Amino acid sequence: MYSFDYQRASDAQGAVNTLAADTEAKYLAGGQSLLAAMKLRLAQPSTLVDVTRIPELKTIQVDGKVVKIGAAVCHADVAANAQIAATLPGLAQLAAHIGDRQVRALGTLGGSLANDDPAADYPAAVLGLNATVVTDRRRIAADDFFLGMYETALEPDELIVAVEFPVPQRSAYEKFRNPASHFALTGVFVAQLADGAVRVAVTGAASSVFRATALEDALKASFTPAAARAVAIAPDDLNTDLHASADYRAHLIPVLTARAVTRALG
Prior knowledge:
Its EC number is 1.2.7.4. It is an enzyme of class 1 (oxidoreductase). Keywords: FAD, Flavoprotein, Oxidoreductase. It holds the Pfam family FAD_binding_5. This protein is α+β, with helices and mostly antiparallel strands. It has two domains: 5-166, Uridine Diphospho-n-acetylenolpyruvylglucosamine Reductase, domain 3 (2-Layer Sandwich), CATH 3.30.465.10; 170-265, Enolase-like, domain 1 (2-Layer Sandwich). It is built from twelve helices and 14 strands. The protein has helices at residues 12-21, 34-39, 75-80, 82-87, 89-96, 101-106, 109-115, 122-128, 142-145, 213-221, 225-229, 246-265; strands at 5-8, 26-28, 47-50, 60-62, 66-70, 132-135, 139-141, 146-148, 151-152, 160-166, 170-177, 184-192, 198-203, 210-211. A five-stranded antiparallel beta sheet has the order 4-5-10-6-7. The longest helix is centred in the last third of the chain and has 20 residues, at 246-265. The radius of gyration is 18 Å and the shape is globular. It starts with a strand and ends with a helix.
């Protein structure tokens, strides 16, 4: 590690002002990815601006149509929230299986999305539910937010304030996880939205989270596990690494989608 300044922000605008004035500064949320990168000298910020104590970033609001979660809410609090579990159980279930207990206690929704790890879980929920990322200056649709590996639509000093998840008719998440890190070797979030549209978001299988349109079309016609299993996914743009081949990930996607549909149907 090396020397850097640390500031604890008390409000969103103050945090944004610090990053606007110092291009080498970084926001600190849970720090589960950033601190590890700093130890490896892959990131060397001049200042860490801690946003975890900003009140507006710590709230959870649930009504019949939208679940709004502050960016600094940790995974464990999403998993344990009774209103989320009752209104959007697919999201609570996803949060309950992120990393291990320590990661869930510190990692945050906003930090996960801003980092946009290719194998992270939350991006699948955001894309699958057609959520809206709310920042200090604008609202970003899920389809416009994720641009590539560790790349999002955020400006360097832009701060995620909250995420608004539309409440679907049903949803669920299934992943085949790395036994050590618990990241998704492949993860699939399935949602049948209030208007009947179906979205299927896949994480862990490519350079960034993506929608599986062939599965969406099949499930729109028949929202059944059998319809999901009947879809063949091409491995061409999928990852091959020491954990799994592209062919294996292509096989997993419809299998996990079928499991998610089964869970969603109860």
